[in-house]
Design a protein that fits this description.
117 residues, mainly beta, 7 strands, 46% strand, elongated
Length: 117
């Protein structure tokens, strides 16, 4: 199985921690940053979760010239704090396809947790 780095919007393609202030405004938490960009952090988390909870081998995307097996791709829509709801939100639109590409399944995953800002 191969889990690709998800696509992300420009406001998430940074190590700064985003805060959704309004539907169209994003600010960043001062003096706080991720250790890597959210797309890479999320890909690593999904790969580790699949390894721990299934019997599947998860290949690094750099190893896919061998046989990628099932391929997970997607778009990381949200990854940060939403000040309007007072919650941390992660939203991922995933697609799973077979090697031949003859079958594709899509699903949205959303997780929230309360936070005090």
């Amino acid at each position: 199985m191969t889990i690709n780095v998800p696509g992300v919007a420009k406001e998430l393609r940074t190590v700064r921690v985003p805060v959704q202030v309004s539907p169209t405004t994003v600010q960043y938490v001062p003096n706080l940053q991720w250790i890597d960009t959210p797309d890479h952090l999320f890909r690593d988390l999904v790969a580790e979760t699949v390894r721990r909870t299934t019997d599947r081998v998860v290949l690094d995307p750099n190893q896919t010239s061998l046989d990628p097996g099932l391929v997970v791709t997607g778009q990381l829509q949200k990854f940060g704090y939403d000040s309007q709801t007072g919650q941390v939100v992660v939203q991922y639109d995933a697609a799973l396809s077979t090697v031949a590409g003859d079958r594709v399944e899509a699903r949205r995953f959303t997780a929230t947790a309360p936070a005090d800002g």
